[in-house]
User: What shape does this take?
Amino acid sequence: MSLILTALIVVLGAGAAYVWRRPSIMLARALTVGTLGVALALATHVLASDVAATRATLLFNDDLSALCLPVTALGACAVLLASPMRELTGRTLASVLLSLAAAVAALCAADLAIFTLAWLLGLGAIYIALPSDDAHARIRKGYVAYAGLGTAPLLLALAILTHAHDTSFVASPEVTNALSTSTQHLVFFLLALTAAFRSGLVPLHAWLPTLTSRAPVAVAALVFGAQLGPVLVARAMVPLTPLVAQSDLSPFSTWAVVSALYAALLGLVQRDVKRTLGYVLTSQSALLLFGMSGTDPESMHGALLGCIGLGLTATGLLLIAGALEARMGSADVVRLEGRGRTLPRMAALFFLLAAAAIGLPGTLPFVSEDLLLHGLLRTNPRGALVLLLGTVLNGITLLRLFFAVFQGPSRERESQKHDLTPREGMVIAGLLALTVLAGLSPRVLLALQEHSVAALSAIEHPRPSRPE
Amino acid sequence: MPSSMQVAHVAALLLLGLPAASALVIGLRMLSMRSPSERNTASIAGTASFLSWALGLVLFVAYRVHGATPLTLAYGEWFGVAGYAFEVELLVDHLSLLMLLLSSSIVGLVSRFSVRYLHREPGFHRFFLLLSAFSAGMSLLVLSGSYDLLFAGWEVVGIASMLLVSFFHDRSGPVRGAVRAMISYRVADVGLLVAGVLLHDLLGSAEFEAAFHEGVWPHAGSAVNANAATWVVLALLLAVMGKSAQFPLSGWLPRAMEGPTPSSALFYGALSVHAGVYLLLRSAPLIEASTPASIAIGVIGALSAISATLTGRTQADAKNILAYATITQVGLMLVAIALHLWTWVLVHMVAHACLRLLQLLRAPSALRDAQELSAALRGAPRPRPGLAFHIVPSGVRDRLYLLARHRFFSDEWLHRLVIDPVLALARALDRMDRATMEGSPEREPDLAPTVPASLSPGAP
Assistant: This one.
């Protein structure tokens, strides 16, 4: 399995290098479809085998990666099939393939060193997708600064762990417990900073909405599709610091939920479709981190399902935003008012995806929110109330965005614009259908992630030793 | 021969599935065909609503055959993890059957009425799609056997309602009305969600069977103590304030009248607005267990009734007058609920739903009648002052008029205390965010489209 995953990453990397110099959409699509096939095959293998027995190599596939990898690969396929053609330049194609390679490596890493390499590759992939002209120099510098703030703690944590003991995510309890409590606190804090950067916690968040509004939608969708923040919590923060994880998760979860509320609040006053989506999706990412840092299985299950739901809905919504911008030449809400009459399919799919994203019953995010709320209201009632406030604000922002863009009188003279093409429509409707199907029968997904949740719960709630 | 239980199982499933399938088929036809025929769309929706009504009768017969005792129809677990499961369970008793037969009859009538009323309207198919979705949601809401499942129906009803308010989406008024309704719903629905979670926490389940002791509605007892019942009912009351447009969340209902007349009649005269009353009726054992919660319901109901009846008297538009009259009547129902007059409320609700449906469906032709009368008399007849005009001192009357004219300044207070500070904070934080990434702390020239315009004081 390790060999297959390594080969996949190498092929994706080589493909990225090729399409950067000689842009070939067909090649990029073939590579992402191939990755999806491999991811599905590996997921099937994990379902059919004993998961715990495969944890030994540098790259491995367990239930967590079996769950997230196909969604990430599917997102990459979707964006290459349905993104506006003018956005799919050589740089964008290379960025998508590199991001996918980085996501595969990060999701399947069995060691913090491998994860760090994947992390750096992913950051580079995002950087090359940013506009390269002088007008955007400030944004590129800002991104580098934020990425530095998010990566330096990871490197420091890696150095500490390398010096102290094995950096494997699956090190034996004797090895991890050998670290002193103060060192574990430090490692937890450093990894928390990294996760906070990736999931857009305040004040390390500003890069995410800017990336969503300025980078090609294909890259933005992949950033939200591969939820590395919760993965870092599940893979590194909790297993590598077992003595302090339970106590340190509490302030971390407060940080996450306050950040979610902050981003939800800012989403209310945006006037650019993509930037608005950026804030809503950032808020939802932070909520997933909040759920992941909850100390009960229900919220962890909810957060993991939420990663899949967010991946599907974010990709669909961003694809529609990209299609809208490509047709209208602007993503400004004021200029886009009243587009439902000329773009009815786009309007219908945007509404359904937005309703799904905010937890319409029968969709996967509804199941995720239900589990999150049931878990958190018991263990962290104050945080759960803030979560509720955040979801209410996100719901208001998304639905109001629909009304602002697709309903009401048009400010500009009616002109014939092309609605979604059949291919765009099929891809976006397919993402919606998956969200509904997974929402109607989530038991397969819940069974698949049972091992990961049980393992995390066991670390956070160690059984008390029997009295002598 | 299948037992009454088996018949009820299948009938209830079909009853929920048929309108949902109708909505799906109409939606797919809209997406795939350039101009689907009105006749086919009307037939699909009409057949589904007729069959739903007939299946409601089948359920009624099954209930009677079962000895008129509540039927609990279990369909298994939707999803679950250790310690928590979302059970799909329906409850057929005399309360749910009454609401089901009322709602399916009204949906059928409105569906038939709308075929001609909306003929050649650009949104004809959209209307029937949303009508079918509403029908499925309403049936789920009244048949659900738990607060969890009721929430699912509640949400579907809310979404259909919101989209029908903005039916005439080429005009800004209906869209503003829809945004206002949506915001009120989103805020209030949290209450129902919290109530369900609280019950799970207290009892390990949000099913009605678990929440209420042995006994037939409304004579069952509460399974939770008075203190817990208070919190659960207060959470439910928040949800009711949104869905049934009670003070201070009543501002959306008059604005929702911008939708087509059949949907106004169906949603805001007959059914949707009574969903909150149904929720409180269903929760009767919990309300009886808590005096503070009963008082809170009574206070909200009384405030809504008084403010709405005064405001309604200053309105010049027939549908607005009817909207405020609806808020008044629902407020009075809440007062009766606070007094635990369950049968009274039930009769009031059914009678009010039927009367208001008729009034709203008649509203456009009543206007024409009034115009003809006015033309025949060469001027509108002067309204005769009521009793209050003679007994209330003129100074008090003037002040009350001013308050009613401005809807008791509820929108202004909402702006001053909540919306303006929140948006000011968000804008300040946004400028800070932009400065850190983009280096240009420029002020946005106009954020009007993102601010809920429907909340502006001058909005209709």
